[in-house]
Backbone:
């Protein structure tokens, strides 16, 4: 199907706008029942950003999330308070709730700060972790909840209850070396950081975000300082940023020096707008459409040229070309700029057409030969 899973359900929910809140036959038949993973990162960012709690609540009800969804990722749902998570109360099946509100391999920093609130969310999470046989393996919290830690807060109390839930599960060991877990970097041996002075407050330890397997940090587990997640070696490849020296998922550390190919994390590039090591002081540019960072030297973009002075568009040329091909770009200046790309594109599509034609001819010829051979065999 061409619609991403959450789009399908949003579409169904929209159709049901005027009917009762409970799932009805029409929507159930549209959305089907493949709901292990409900990831709002699969839908258009703009759409997710505009969803409110009522929307989320209707979606969760419509798909019977409490009995179906194992992984819930609220990527880009920055407009919610969390009240819409109500239908998840007491879920025995949910394994992961990612309240980080950003997509995979994105920095958790959000501006403006999202309004998701402990008051709405924690009582719901409590019904999940208090249920016997609860399947929860991984919790990711929004960064705003972690920034001013206080032992008096409701959130802090919740972290302790969550740690208790893990403690009740008995001994868990590193799948590689068998060392008893958890071993965070502090001395507290807890599954989620509660040291209000530590940098890892509210972060879950020793649990891969991708596969939920448990490893120690000496074996297969890595912490990425951009997306601030633990990943095991099997789920994501890591590199060290040559500026800050921290370890990052390759998808998070996507900028590469054109001279030495050293990886630079997006954090270091974005904050300082510089390429380090080789291109001192050169400004890099970020495409307004695709978020790629372009070096003035490693790509063909002249400094200051990624944005158009005519229409103030700051897309990269690939994005300009895409928009042109979709008939969405009216600016003559932008079109002039990507003229060589347009020409190349039309040559490519023409030569593809020619190739298809010659293949067709070839097939025809083969069929004819085949027929001829067969008729010869008959005689
Ligand atoms: Zn280990
Ligand atoms: Zn993993
Ligand atoms: Zn990462
Ligand atoms: Zn860095
Ligand atoms: Zn370099
Ligand atoms: Zn772009
Ligand atoms: Zn650069
Ligand atoms: Zn323009």
Residues:
């Amino acid at each position: 199907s061409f619609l991403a899973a959450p789009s399908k359900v949003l579409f169904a929910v929209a159709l049901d706008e005027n009917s009762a809140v409970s799932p009805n036959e029409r929507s159930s038949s549209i959305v089907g029942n493949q709901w292990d993973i409900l990831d709002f990162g699969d839908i258009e960012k703009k759409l997710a950003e505009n969803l409110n709690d009522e929307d989320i609540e209707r979606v969760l009800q419509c798909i019977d999330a409490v009995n179906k969804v194992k992984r819930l990722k609220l990527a880009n749902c920055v407009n919610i308070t969390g009240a819409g998570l109500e239908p998840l109360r007491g879920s025995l099946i949910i394994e992961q709730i990612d309240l980080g509100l950003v997509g995979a391999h994105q920095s958790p920093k959000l501006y403006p700060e999202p309004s998701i609130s402990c008051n709405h969310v924690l009582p719901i999470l409590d019904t999940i972790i208090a249920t016997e046989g609860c399947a929860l393996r991984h919790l990711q919290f929004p960064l705003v909840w972690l920034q001013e830690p206080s032992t008096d807060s409701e959130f802090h109390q919740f972290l302790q209850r969550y740690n208790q839930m893990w403690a009740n599960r008995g001994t868990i060991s590193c799948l590689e070396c068998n060392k008893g877990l958890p071993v965070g970097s502090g001395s507290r041996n807890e599954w989620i950081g509660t040291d209000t002075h530590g940098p890892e407050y509210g972060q879950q330890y020793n649990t891969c975000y991708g596969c939920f397997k448990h490893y120690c940090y000496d074996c297969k587990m890595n912490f990425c300082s951009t997306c601030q997640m633990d990943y095991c070696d099997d789920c994501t490849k890591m590199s060290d940023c040559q500026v800050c020296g921290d370890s990052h998922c390759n998808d998070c550390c996507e900028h590469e020096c054109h001279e030495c190919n050293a990886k630079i994390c997006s954090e270091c590039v974005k904050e300082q707008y510089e390429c380090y090591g080789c291109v001192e002081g050169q400004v890099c540019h970020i495409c307004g459409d695709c978020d790629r960072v372009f070096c003035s030297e490693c790509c063909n973009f002249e400094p200051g040229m990624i944005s158009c002075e005519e229409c103030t568009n700051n897309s990269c040329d690939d994005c300009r070309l895409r928009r042109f091909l979709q008939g969405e770009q009216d600016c003559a200046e932008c079109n002039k700029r990507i003229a060589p790309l347009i020409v190349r594109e039309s040559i490519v599509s023409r030569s593809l057409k020619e190739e298809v034609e010659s293949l067709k001819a070839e097939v025809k010829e083969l069929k004819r030969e085949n027929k001829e051979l067969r008729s010869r065999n008959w005689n």
